[in-house]
Amino acid sequence: MSLLTKKEISGYLAVVDTLPSDQRNKVYQLLEMDRVERCQNDFLYFAAQMWPGFISGKHHKIMADAFERVASGELKRLIINMPPRHTKSEFASFLLPAWFLGKNPEKKIIQTAHTAELAVGFGRKVRNLVSSEVFSKVFDTKLSSDSKAAGRWNTHAGGDYFAIGVGGAVTGKGADVLIIDDPHSEQEARQNNPAVFDSVYEWYTSGPRQRLQPGGAIIIVMTRWSKKDLTGAILKGSARDGVNEWEVIEFPAILPSGTPLWPGFWSKEELEALRAELPVSKWEAQYQQNPTGEEGAIIKRDMWRIWENEDPPKCEYLIQSWDTAFEKNTRADYSACTTWGVFSHPDQHGALKTNIILLDAFKRRMEFPELKQKAFEMWKEWSPDTLIIEKKAAGAPLIYELRMMGIPLSEYTPSKGNDKIARVNAISDLFASGIVWCPATRWADEVMEEMAAFPNGDNDDLVDSSSQALIRYRQGGFISIDSDEQDEIRYFKNPRRERYYSV
User: Fold this and answer.
1) Which residues neighbour 281 within 8 Å (Cβ) at sequence distance 6 or greater?
2) CA distances (Å), origin 66, targets 59, 72, 388
3) 193: Cβ–Cβ under 8 A, 6 or more apart, which residues?
4) Model confidence over 182-209: pLDDT tens digits?
5) DSSP helix/strand/coil, 136
6) For strand 160-165 and strand 335-346, is the pairing parallel, antiparallel, or unpaired?
7) Distance set, CA 165 to CA 122, 127, 139, 349 (Å)
């Protein structure tokens, strides 16, 4: 039979109570047949029927469509990266195996998680659902009479389910579908030890990957931790081998538009509060699926020095630097501003040397009127000795507007061939020499994180703003290191007024 439309279902329900009992029973039978067929062919509908209280989001529809393509044989390799507490395991490790075995009772599933206990727990939930009355009204799949173990059981048609923790042996087992759910534990991932991630990838390639049946599918659903985690290792290997077989779906907790991924469950206020509590690196990896890594980084996090005092040092000269975007939209770059100061600080021998410190940082997607107002506010707040704006994108009209307001500024136009990487390389030795500081604040952590991810990160707006400022300091002779040729004369203004960091 063909599935009923929503309009047809509504029409039947509107009149069913007015019909004679025999006709009413026929309508109920028709509606039940429609419900069964929908459950069998529509994973999202099945999930809603089997999971009372389920709150659907757009990401569930995307996941469901991908799972249906796996079940039909259309999709063989699927990676879904998504934040915690967004029904990752409920969908991939509970509802999907039950639905798949309901449709294909002769198939074999290997289910994995980062511990054997967790994997067996999933197995118990799947087994209980498959043996339930509500499931039996949709599918004919039954458990075999000897299926008592939660992590190892069979169907009446010869299919089987096998649950295993990462690192466990899968000898003798085959899989039509291999499901890997969060292969890294938080305790292991926090170590940030490449060997931990390498061991998971080695287990995957030498163990469950080898147990895949001809034509079988692999589904990996996980939260990102590092560029070296299982998702990162698999994609790096695919790129190296020239095999683009994986479909990758990434769900950030907060979308580029600024709205939550799952507004029916997570409010933006709740997510922003969580974001404020977490280190930038953890938020970006786990919740935004954007892990940063220092492999290939020009400026690493440990090159920075941390200013622990509540008050900043007395600075002798301030530079404020803007990198602007074209317009406010989901694909636009951010407009970013950093404020830097130079100050004297004793070196390891007690001799005073000129150091530099990050005093403030800001970035946001803005339309031009807001950008103009923010630039004015930040100039007024800090009264920098030099204001630098790169003459590109919204920078050109911003330069014009600020000059009309009487604000002195300098245009920055990179010389030909002086690309982003070249500019960062030009200041990297300043960081390596230990004269660049930042306070222990969240916004400073965001700058360090973006620097550490460059040139492989998704955003480099704060990087561009910072490199402009530091290059100008260096060109002006304000800062130098032992390898530089020393200027005979260096001039500074009187020490700047004291101020507090904004957190």
Assistant:
1) 291, 292, 445, 449
2) 11, 10, 48
3) none
4) 999 887 777 667 788 899 999 999 888 8
5) helix
6) unpaired
7) 11, 17, 29, 54
- β-bridge pairing 386-390 and 410-412: parallel
| Of 183, 258, 262, nearest in space to 226 by CA | 183
Structure tokens at 475: 């060109």
Round to whole Å and give the CA distance between 83 and 223.
6
pLDDT digits (tens, 9 = 90+) for 28-85: 566 677 888 999 999 999 999 999 889 999 999 999 999 999 999 999 999 999 999 9
Alpha helices for 342-460 (secondary structure H): 368-382, 395-404, 420-432, 442-453
Pairwise CA distance, residues 266 & 277, whole Å:
16
Half-sphere exposure of 174 (CA within 13 A, CB side): 10
Cβ(46)–Cβ(238) below 8 Å = no
Q: Identify the pLDDT of residue 148.
A: 74
DSSP state of 3: P
* Rounded CA separation 283/253 (Å): 9
The values of phi and psi at residue 177, to 5°, are: -135, 125
d(CA 85, CA 476): 51
Q: Are 389 and 412 in contact (CB under 8 A)?
A: yes
Burial 267-281 (b: 16+ CB within 10 A, else e): eeeebeebbeeeebb
What is the side-by-side order of every strand in the sheet holding 436-439? Answer: 305-307, 436-439, 352-364, 335-346, 317-323, 386-390, 410-412
Rounded to whole angstroms, how far apart are CA atoms 374 and 393? 16
Structure tokens at 185: 């534990």
8 Å CB contact between 48 and 264: no
Spans of the chain below 50 pLDDT: 1, 330-331, 485-503
pTM score, whole prediction:
0.68
Provide the 3-class DSSP secondary structure of residue 404: helix
The pLDDT score that the predictor gives to residue 388 is 95
β-pairing, 317-323 with 335-346?
antiparallel
Instruction: Phi first, then psi: give them for residue 46, nearest 5 degrees.
Output: -60, -45
Q: Tell me, what's the pLDDT at 349?
A: 85
Cα(253)–Cα(81) distance, integer angstroms:
11
How far apart are alpha carbons 12 and 227 in whole angstroms? 53
Contact yes or no for 457/420 (Cβ under 8 A): no
In the numeric block, which tokens belong to residue 124? 């118990």
Q: Which residue is associated with the tokens 């990957």? A: 209
- Other Cβ atoms closer than 10 A to 194: 12
Q: What one-character DSSP code corresponds to residue 101?
A: H
